[in-house]
Each structure stands twice: as C-alpha cells, then as structure tokens.
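Usage

Read records sequentially. Each one opens with the input sequence:
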Amino acid sequence: MLSKRIITGIIVSTIMIALILVFPGNLMADGHGEGPGIERTEEIIMAYLNPEDPADIHDMNYVTDDVTYYDMSMGGIPMSSNREELADYLYWFYNVAFETEVEIRNMVIGNGQAVLEWIVMGTHIGEFAEIPPTGNTIEVPMIIRYKLQDHEPYHVERGWIYPMANLLMAQLLAE
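and closes with the structure output:
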C-alpha cells in the first residue's frame, strides 16, 4: 500500500501537469510580444515571494491594487479583491491561524504566468474553519498559479490557489 506522502506527491504532480496542459500557450510562451517575458516574470514572482522584510509574507509592492486571489478548493470563490485584503488574509493564514514556513518544491515560469508547488509546514495556533487551535503540526501541499499584468509594471493581478484542503482538515482533526 502506498504511503500518504507518496499519494499526495502523485496528486500534486498530477495537478501541476494538468495546469501546464490547460495553459500551454501562456506558460510556454517565448517572451516575445505582449507580457514581460519569461525572465522578467521569474524576477517579479521571486521578488513577490521573497520580501526584503522577513516579517512580511509576500512583498505587496508586486501586486496590483485590485489583485484577486481565488480559492479553488472552495469552487473558485475570491479570497481577496484588493491588495489590502490579500495582505490581511496572508498574514492571518501564515501568522494567526498557523505558524508556518513555506518550501517551494517546483516552479514553471511562462510569459506573464507562473505555477508553483509548495509545502506549507507549521503548527495550528489559531481558529481556522471554526476549529479552535489544536497545536497540531501541518504539512500541506499547495499549487498556486499567478498571472501578471500584460503591461508595465507587470505586477501580480490574479492568483489561483489549489490547496489540499482535505489533507489540511485531516491533520487539524487528527488526535
């Protein structure tokens, strides 16, 4: 029988492949024409994910004022529709509901878009989904797809998060 970690890896890899196949024109573009090109896209995504101030989750200087993030585990409902909402949500998730670290496992960069696989690791320290703090350890794979503006300054304008919500809930409810 396969372990949970192997099954999770298979599921995450399948999602990555599916995203690449669904968006091949955008992810595999050569950087000519509209958009920032592959190298500039990678530069912007990495700057967004690695803020100068380690206390920040992401560098909000690299998102548009009307940035929208969608939670695909909830049917694609918007989690945020502007920079302030996104900053508040990310702070809450990574510092209030959980105390976490993130490890990027895979990244596919295209002209103005990126798909990342990462693992969120940490401890459940605050209420989440009406579950009071359990102190349980979490290790949850997530996929996120970013879309940049198609004009300068090429900031992140959309994000689609595909968390393994079922795995997260199982870890929170484990005794």
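Summary fields computed downstream for this record:
- Residues 11 and 142 are 11 Å apart (CA to CA).
- The longest helix spans residues 4-22.
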